[in-house]
Amino acid sequence: MAELVPATGAHLLQIQHESFAIWNDGLDFPQYGRFWEAQRRTAWGGSHLDRVALVEDGTVTSSAKRYDLSARVEGRIRRLLGIGAVFTSPSRRGRGGARRLLEAILEEAVTEGYEYAMLFSEIDTAFYEQLNFVPVPLLESRLVVEREGGAPAVLVRAGDDRDIPAIAEMSAKRAEGARLALDRTEDWIRYGIAKRRLHSGLGAAGLREVEFLVTEEGHQAVAYLVSTIYHGQWFLEEAGDRDPSGARLGAMLQVMLARTPHLDAPEIRAWLPQGFVPPQVTRTDEHATGGAMMIRPLRDRTLPLPPLDAHQVVYWRNDYF
Questions:
Q1: CATH, domain 139-288, list 3.40.190.10, 3.40.630.30, 3.30.980.40, 1.20.1250.20
Q2: Mind listing the pLDDT tens digit for each residue in 174-210?
Q3: What is the mean pLDDT of residues 89-110?
Q4: Domain boundaries, given as residue ranges, for the chain
Q5: What is the DSSP annotation of 19-46?
Q6: CA atoms of 145 and 126, how far apart (whole Å)
Q7: Is the dihedral of CA 113, 115, 120, 125 positive or negative?
Q8: Whole-angstrom Cα distance, residue 293 to residue 76?
Q9: First to last CA, the chain
Q10: Under CATH, to which class is 2-138+290-319 assigned?
């Protein structure tokens, strides 16, 4: 008999042991477990994040993480279930366990009032298309920042919790013109930053660096960025600017580069919204992101659906699940 249950205790330990080789991302096994527990202890994670397992004959067949989210779809806020880390036990593969898991999760989501489900596929999207998920295009770009003339006269400081309300406002403003964007609440933004810092702090010293920076006017953040540095490559995990042109964000990137004028400019990459290119920045080498984002309506099949173009979607890598 198959049963969908919370993944805790021995079931969670089995999942972590079997998935560690795929998703450890530079952590050792104890750190891998602590990383999950720390996420659950955040203000957002404690009430919006869990892990479930499909148990058959007393053994975990498949498992997944569930994220209680909201998204702006065609101008309206809709309740959305994010599904992440879909995994089938190696000894149970090829028997339809992942499909049964997803069908059970989606059935429960309908009962709980979710209007959409979303996931990221690291495999051929055809499997999820059989479950009525539709691919949504996302693009990754390389950012080339103008360095001539040295650092601009812009004060950049470390961001902190007082900046989160302003960041949420910037995120909401940026999402207004999009057909699809996550509804980035203050606690979700805190969770995303905390997750990056936890990952960096639990890993080997110096392996990853995380920076959360803002520039302010009148004691209020007017531009910000969250970036990670890994093996010398920078990734702009999320960013915002009250100036629609993004000029303050561009100046912040110039300030960051000016800290090491004796070094070659690092490679900087981002999932930058199509209409958001600072004047000091050139986008190059655009290509589809590594994981395909997919979405489907749940109870009401008449709800708006893609096809969508990449320029109609606002989604940062910090929101990836």
A1: 3.40.630.30
A2: 999 899 999 999 999 999 999 999 999 999 999 999 9
A3: 95
A4: 2-138+290-319, 139-288
A5: HHHHH-TT--HHHHHHHHHHHHHSTTHH
A6: 38
A7: positive
A8: 20
A9: 30
A10: alpha beta
Dihedral, CA of residue 57, residue 58, residue 61 and residue 63, to nearest 10: 140
* pTM beyond cutoff 0.85: yes
For residue 305, pLDDT over 70 is answered with no
Are the folds of 2-138+290-319 and 139-288 the same? yes
pLDDT for res 303: 62
Three-state SS at 316 = coil
Q: Are 207 and 26 in contact (CB under 8 A)?
A: yes
The answer to whether the beta carbons of residues 133 and 105 sit under 8 Å apart is no
| Mean per-residue pLDDT of the chain | 94
Neighbours of 46 (CB within 10 A): 13
Give percent of the chain above pLDDT 90. 86
Q: For residue 275, which of 232, 309, 230, 319 has the smallest C-alpha distance?
A: 309
Find the radius of gyration of the CA atoms of the chain: 20
